[in-house]
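Objective 1.3, modelling of assemblies. Example input:
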Amino acid sequence: MLKTISIYLSENPTLRYWIVRPEWVAVILLIISIISSIQLSPFFADLAFIMDSATPYVEYGLIAIILTLIIISGEIDLSIASMIALTAVIFGTAYNAGLGMPISMLIALFSGTLCGLFNGILVTQLQIPSIILTIGTLTLYRGIAQSLASDFSLGGYPSWFIGIDYRYIGIVPIPVIIFTVFAIVVGFFLSSTIYGKQLYLIGTNPQTAKYSGIKVNRIKLLLFTLSGLVCGIAGVLTTSRLAVARFNMATGAELEIVLMVMLGGTYIFGGRGNIFGTFVAFWIVVILRAGLNVARIKIESQLTILGAMLIIAIILTNYIYSKSQK
Amino acid sequence: MTLFDKFLRIRELGIFSIIVVFVIVAAIIDPRFMTLDSWRAVFLAIPLILVMAMGQMMVIICRHVDISIGSILAFSAIVIGLLYIQFPGLSLWLSLIITAFVGLVMGLINGFIVTRFNVHSIIVTLGTLSLYRGLVFIVSGGRQIDRNDIPEHVVSFSQTSFLFSIPGILIFSAIIVVITHLVMRHSVLGREIYATGSNPVAAHLKGINVTKVTLFCFGICGMLAGVAGLFYASRFGYVNPGVTGVGIEFIVIAGVIIGGTSITGGSGSVLGTFLGILLLGIINVALPVLNIPGEFQKAIYGLIIVVALALDQLIIYRMKKLSGGINA
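Predicted structure (tokens):
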């Protein structure tokens, strides 16, 4: 039967284009994880519980969406987790220096933007491969955060600022709403505007894109800067959720963020992928993490499963694209 | 060709002069830096990183990066620690073979995924970084290997030896460095690694088995990280699943890159890597002497990586211009 399906698909390229897509893997995985979680514990049938478990990952989800754009355009940013920590620490330092909440927030966002801009300039002007450069800035930003905050927790925020994850509209926590709106906006931008299409072209073939009159470097610079800005937002959100800022917060978050993007079927070499996949993959990670917690598997041991999933996701995505390309 | 160009061409000379300047400045600011104790600290700090850097250098010359070595180190250290609890009399040589084997297997897994599925090594090893770290917690049950679990003859390996009581790990890492140098410079395999890194496609056409060479590099990198696990257990006397080897990969990569190994593959030397690691070791020891808080260390290492990457790119740019090749 599989053979007849594959023959049928190879005769209908349009149908094949729609069916042989890695996003469907993400959707199937999501359904599997929901069903198996409900088997594990009836709490998973409760939408409010899933919404609540999603809030800690919203910061990662926001960045995953921007990272999807960056990976589609053929680059990668691994310094994201360090930028969350750095902006959070800068925010805490500024607030504790008596600068007031609005100015501290602005400073945090600005410093995030600056970090992203720094990545972007080095990648576009000096042509350093982004994957290795952001390994360097990962260490640098985390180190600056550590130099600023030392081993202290920067706290003492006003009560209206703390606990954004406990504010709801209906049963939906506010961070989840922010994430969803952001995903829809960026998804629309990527799929339906000319700039979105340009990203795909840059990722597919930067040389052609350049000769087609697309300002490749400027767009990449913009993307890296945007990534920094969103990390700044995520840093402030995380501080609000935890009520403190520390230099070692979001340690290892790059794994989960890259996992969200990869599970969502974005092609690691650029040029393919979409926001829908990342959005679905976000919920897979949320349910997986919640499920593993309910199953009382240690946080550290969960790393094994997440790491294995990242590798499997990449291999599977590559395999599917190699099939649909034929 | 100006003198500056010539200077840039000898990469080891650059890093060597930075070390000399740094040491002189540090010694002027605080003469305590030139005491024997400081230098003993430097040479006790580097063997662990140096051994890992030899493997990482091979991988980077081969156009890949392995960021899972910290977790490999932790895993082999935990395995050998648990074995010591069961068999306190385990000899040093046997533990060396065991840790090397554990590391080799993990490195080969990395190499297999990278070569078989043709995915960028940083993403793969980002996955295995967490995977192996999770395994460390599963195998150890989250329990630390304590000081009194590690037998005396293993601890003394990092303190003294038969030869002028120079610490054993120092001698052993020196042997590994020399062997790596001989392999990279004077063996067919070493030259094949350079060829693969400079141009994998051409290397393949030349009849070099690129897959085998890449697998070899990842295997050796893992193996040396495994051996470093034994060094860690011996040097620090404890193995903590959550602390051991976390972030050490970035120190190793920093050392290799400032040692003049190009991240675009195909160039780099054992001498340069040694000098790079030496500089990091000196900085590590000089910070407290110069009254710079330890919190700044990570930021300084990060800055060094970024500056070294930028310099490396500038050198490539100049080389291309000098050779009249691609006008970038």
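The radius of gyration of chain A is 20 Å.
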